[in-house]
Amino acid sequence: MDKPRFFSHLRCRECGRHYAKEPVHVCEFDFGPLEAAYDYDAIGKSLTRKKILSRPRSMWRYRELLPLENEPTVGLHTGFTPLIRTRRLAERLGVEELYVKNDTVNYPTLSFKDRVVSVALSRARELRIDTVACASTGNLANSVAANAAAAGLRSFVLIPADLEPTKILGSLIFGTNVIGIQGAYDQVNRLCSEIAGKYHWGFVNVNLRPYYAEGSKTMGFEIIEQLGWRLPRHTVVCMASGSLLTKIHKSFQEFTKLGLVEAGEFSIYGAQAVGCSPVTTAIKNNTEIVKPVAKPHTIAKSLSIGTPADGYYAIRTMKETGGAAEDCTDEEIIDAIKLLAETEGIFAETAGGVTVACAQKLIERGCIPRNESIVLCITGHGLKTQEAVIDKIGQAKLIRPNLREFETLFEHAIKTI
Ligand SMILES: *Cc1c(COP(=O)(O)O)cnc(C)c1O
Ligand SMILES: [Zn+2]
User: Fold this and answer.
1) CB of 139 closer than 6 A to ligand 1?
2) What are the domain boundaries of the chain?
3) Do the beta carbons of residue 111 and residue 142 sit within 8 Å?
4) Annotation: CATH topology of 83-109+214-388
5) Smallest Cα–Cα separation from 303: which of 218, 363, 388, 375?
């Protein structure tokens, strides 16, 4: 394959100043976040639908639009998860054209975070960084741990100590250094910034954040391609830092700019849990000022970021695209997880429940019309947050191994239907 030369520099989102392609993430002048910038003329001449279609089914089929200087070396099998036309769920929600982008089956750790980590660790290797780390609400830690193990990189993952046991196990198994912090995510993140300032480690979502964040665009590229090179009219995304939502927006803009999809209207909607809803609250109060949540309290722990780094940009994205925001209670999350499972056979984690529950509310409120295309971004697998539903799904019916007992049970079951 030809060597990609399309990633040109880092650029401040606020003042536009250029920065070299180093492990840096904030502008020295205004503290604006740095973002990857590309040579779109060169990409436009090189990247066609035909070329994309000829490549393996992974997120790397769009590699010209990812911030690497060489071929990727980490996470080669990540992405290209199914986009499913969900007819039974559509019927329950009373809409005509509904899809689920199913990142519960992403490789290797069953969440959308495998996308961002594949880019961040590939870039870390290009920068000759030998120790990678992250501040995580669970899924990021799992993905850093797995991908670092496979890449032979040393890793440290820092998490709030009270995460779901399966999320902690899902990092420990890979032999990474798991550090549980007695505090909320914001405190974990602050500590990581301090460590990153002192040690020359690659913190995927701190000093490597401009690279990391770009990985989320591949979810949007795939949605367009899998819809038959069409923009979805409405896209619902759950938010933690708000990064995924803003990057889906960027992906739709980039494919439009490159002529890979016909220009058209699209709206993007954000979803959070009531127990940690700094971004949706700002939207509902019609302000762009995000008020931090000091003590998040919800079963959607993967979304529990009280001070969302990209909250402001997420708000701007929703406003600019004519989207909206919604939040839901823990009870609504559980009902939504069960609804998605029972109608479509997809077991999502609590964050997925947030997306489905909020989409339902946005449809009922009339924000999302019932007769246009809707995509729900389902970002993580339910086996990682079992405690959220374990008491809400009944139990196996126990019998001794004989036909009579089975038939008694069966007759009883028929009577109770
Ligand atoms: C991290 C995460 C998100 C959202 O992440 P952003 O910080 O908003 O990009 C959504 N769903 C799951 C399951 C996650 O782990
Ligand atoms: Zn700046």
Assistant:
1) yes
2) 83-109+214-388
3) yes
4) Rossmann fold (3.40.50)
5) 388
User: One-letter amino acid identity for 255?
Assistant: F
At 20-49, the pLDDT tens digits run: 999 999 999 999 999 999 999 999 999 999
CA of 39 to the centre of ligand 2 (A): 20
Q: What's the gap in Å between 407 CA and the centre of ligand 1?
A: 46
Pocket test residue of 302, 378, 384 for ligand 1, highest count of atoms within 8 A of CB? 302
DSSP 334-390: HHHHHHHHHHH---B-HHHHHHHHHHHHHHHTTSS-TTSEEEEEE-BBGGGGGGGTT
d(Cα 72, Cα 109) in Å, to the nearest integer? 18
Ligand 1 pocket test: pick from 106, 139, 142, 250 the residue with the most ligand atoms within 8 Å of its Cβ. Answer: 139
* pTM of the predicted structure, to 2 decimals: 0.97
Give me the torsion for CA of 325, 331, 334, 335, rounded to 10°: -80
Other C-beta atoms closer than 10 Å to the C-beta of 383 total 12
Q: 207 exposed, middle or buried (CB, 10 Å; 0-12, 13-18, 19+)?
A: buried
